[in-house]
Automatic annotation (TrEMBL):
Molecular function terms, GO-annotated: hydrolase activity
Organism of this sequence: Haloferula chungangensis
Record's keyword annotation contains Hydrolase: yes
Pfam families: PIG-L (PF02585)
Entry keywords, A to Z: Hydrolase
Claim: Nuclease is one of the keywords in the record: no
Root EC class: hydrolase
Name the record gives this protein: PIG-L deacetylase family protein
InterPro entries attached to this UniProt entry: GlcNAc_PI_deacetylase-related, LmbE-like_dom_sf
Length: 282
């Protein structure tokens, strides 16, 4: 496969040949940074883990150059850090038995540039071979600029596919700004209970980020647990964790649906929910 960035990397953990290694994909996640996929698409990773008829593939779009660093990584330069993070991502793919992991190697600034279509072309190349049934994306209310830009480029790529090749289900998942604010009817519930040891080890792979002074490994697990506990006040917990997601399937299937209007409609329903509850008891 040809990609625009010279540093682009396609890693197949079980060394299956292309294109079969990619076309076996059933669940695909597209994220901005090394570690995003493991934090937001664990549901898909766990679903495919150990199966021969379901395969998870991941696409990480950025080169990992801009991460914060301290401790053992304080003096590591940008190019060395990129190599370390790419290797961490490959190690996660091996641990999680992914079908493939593709690292496109873009600087964040290129992804944020809406005139640059290279990233869309690369994503389309992968999507047209992988043809996933389910995709996991960043959600449009995320507060990280690069995450939002990656989502917008992903949506363009998905909408460029013929209608019958588009995924049946598209989830917009939480990382920067969680999705507890969605009203319950709008919450996409992605259980993360399965394979707890795998879950912990996948989060811990990204040592360079954790050592950089951010305990993502603990925070992600804390969020998943909190979601399971606070989801419903009247019933006992049946799952040990959830990732919350927005159902983005309508956006993927209708090229004319506006993403701003679509996203703000969720905020409108939250506003109405708050208003109705307050008015009910005052
Ligand atoms: Zn990220």
């Amino acid at each position: 496969m040809n990609f625009h960035q010279a540093s682009a990397d396609c890693f197949i953990p079980d060394a299956s040949p292309l294109p079969g290694a990619l076309s076996r994909t059933t669940h695909l996640a597209i994220g901005a940074h090394q570690d995003d996929l493991e934090f937001f698409a664990y549901h898909g990773i766990a679903h495919c883990y150990g199966k021969k008829d379901a395969w998870f593939s991941g696409i990480t779009c950025t080169d990992g150059a801009g991460s914060s660093r301290s401790g053992a990584y304080a003096d590591v330069g940008d190019s060395e850090m990129q190599a370390i993070r790419a290797e961490e991502q490959r190690r996660a793919a091996t641990l999680g038995e992914y079908g493939s992991i593709i690292q496109l190697g873009y600087p964040s600034a290129e992804i944020k540039d809406s005139n640059n279509t290279h990233i869309i072309e690369d994503l389309s190349t992968v999507l047209s071979i992988a043809r996933p049934e389910v995709v996991y994306l960043h959600n449009p209310a995320d507060k990280h600029d690069t995450h939002v830009a990656v989502l917008l480029r992903s949506l363009r790529a998905l909408r460029s596919l013929p209608a019958d090749q588009r995924p049946k289900q598209a989830w917009g998942c939480e990382i920067w700004r969680d999705l507890d604010w969605l009203i319950d009817q709008d919450k996409g519930l992605l259980p993360t209970t399965a394979h707890p040891e795998l879950q912990a080890s996948l989060n811990q792979v990204f040592e360079s980020q954790i050592q950089g002074g951010k305990r993502y490994d603990l925070a992600v697990m804390g969020r998943r647990l909190a979601h399971a506990t606070f989801l419903d006040s009247h019933h006992s917990d049946t799952e040990t964790g959830f990732t919350f997601a927005m159902d983005l399937t309508p956006l993927v299937h209708d090229n004319h649906l506006d993403i701003v209007d679509f996203t703000l409609s969720y905020a409108e329903r939250l506003k109405t929910d708050i208003e109705l509850r307050l008015n009910k008891f005052r």
